[in-house]
């Protein structure tokens, strides 16, 4: 653009060509690549990957990473790794350009569980069993989210146990 000025004597002046940029476009809503929603990690380090774009070419996108609703990290990188103690977490990203335009991603959740399951209250009935007799095996298993339990019987046969009452698991061998 040019600036023009005219004085009262009719003299006209023109500036050199100048330009300016109107940066009013917010970054796109951040896409969360990893971890996937409801991710379960047996390690303390969790890798995050996300991205956003901004049509205002001169903008630098800052990523604000929120964990459990609290700002945890601000970076211009589109991936990072963070360490967590065992627990259940939410995360989302806010993409912010240098002109204070911002957009927020959806929220995802993940679990860090580094503890092995623990067995207690193991009971077999009858003990010892007789041949051709039903045997009920009970065990209490704690430590994180138990996804399945397998009973190895006599070192050769595996049974997947599906009956669960809280942290107590029951199975009858026939």
Key structural traits:
single chain; mainly beta; 4-stranded antiparallel β-sheet; rod-shaped; 17 strands; 174 residues; 52% strand
Q: Can you offer a commentary on this structure?
A:
The chain is mostly beta strands and 174 residues long. The protein contains no helices and 17 strands. β16 and β17 form a beta hairpin. The chain is rod-shaped, with a radius of gyration of 31 Å. The mean pLDDT is 83.
SS strand fraction = over 45%
Low-confidence spans: none
Q: Largest sheet, if any?
A: 6 strands, mixed
User: How many H/I helices?
Assistant: 0
Q: Give the ordered list of helices and strands.
A: EEEEEEEEEEEEEEEEE
Shape: rod-shaped
Report the radius of gyration as a whole number of Å. Answer: 31 Å
- Total count of strands: 17
Find the structural class using helix and strand composition: mainly beta
Mean pLDDT over all positions: 83
Helix content: under 10%
Terminal Cα span: 89 Å
């Amino acid at each position: 653009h040019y600036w023009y000025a005219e004085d009262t004597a009719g003299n006209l002046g023109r500036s050199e060509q100048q330009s300016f940029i109107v940066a009013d476009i917010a970054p796109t809503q951040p896409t969360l690549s990893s971890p996937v929603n409801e991710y379960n990690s047996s390690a303390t380090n969790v890798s995050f990957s996300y991205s956003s774009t901004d049509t205002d070419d001169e903008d630098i996108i800052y990523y604000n990473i929120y964990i459990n609703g609290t700002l945890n990290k601000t970076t211009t990188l589109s991936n990072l790794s963070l360490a967590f103690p065992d627990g259940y977490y939410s995360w989302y990203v806010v993409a912010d350009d240098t002109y204070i335009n911002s957009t927020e991603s959806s929220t995802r959740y993940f679990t860090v569980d580094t503890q092995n399951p623990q067995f207690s209250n193991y009971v077999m009935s009858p003990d010892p069993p007789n041949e051709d007799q039903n045997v009920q095996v009970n065990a209490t298993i704690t430590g994180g989210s138990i996804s399945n339990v397998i009973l190895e019987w006599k070192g050769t046969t595996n049974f997947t146990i599906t009956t669960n009452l809280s942290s107590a698991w029951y199975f009858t061998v026939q």
